[in-house]
């Protein structure tokens, strides 16, 4: 700002009012902000400073390797593959041992996978009693595979359900349960209270159809023939069963066809649902004869007439 002079060359008098007012009433000193407001102020100032000074770090990005661009590129001439060797000329498959026998052939994995094994989902008696106490299972009705799945008592069913006897002393309610398999202790504990256990054959496709409500979860063709009304036998009972299944369900629950499954579910000790097909005095086996029972079409030779031809039997010698 230029200096102002009078006509006679002297400077105008200075204003002493402001200086006197400052001496009389000085300006109050700076009062800092409350300490609890410091974090908020610092965060705002820091965020603003970061946004205004953002930049890439030089070490954050690496230079793209340009192969085959000469020695000056750092990966030139051989492009990083070296001077000699099979890997210089192309790719090598996994397990390649330079033309020799592969390692997986010399040292193969031990053991095998049993394609006939089944993986049962276990359920114990203490869990069933806990579910009954919580009101998730109704003991007045038969407890089947579908009820155990819908109540979340079992999470995921693979090849079936096996009933185990852990916590058998905690079971206080008589129940009627239908499962794939059951242990002897579990059967004894349930029947001691007046309940029943029935083991039933299931397959993976049938389990999926049961959970979708497309198949009966307990009755099949062989298990319902014995429950037919009085006066209906054989073909009539079968016809009625098929007609009922077609009207109510889209698919029918299958029955076992292999010898191993047939013998398991024909055994009364396992409480199999096919045990009613076994005649009195006979065993569940389809191959071995029951001791003490003469097979049909044969006669036991007496001790005296051993080796003598029976009467009416045609013999050449």
Explain the overall architecture.
With 317 residues, this protein is mostly helical. The chain has a domain at 121-215: Ribosomal Protein L15, Chain: K, domain 2, CATH 3.100.10.10. It contains 10 helices and 5 strands. It has helices at 17-24, 38-52, 103-106, 125-133, 145-150, 184-192, 204-211, 221-224, 235-248, 259-265, and strands at residues 121-124, 161-164, 176-179, 181-182, 196-199. The strands form 2 sheets. The chain has a 3-stranded parallel β-sheet with strand order 1-2-4. The protein has a two-stranded parallel ribbon with strand order 3-5. The longest helix has 15 residues, at 38-52. The protein is flat and about 160 Å long. The mean pLDDT is 80.
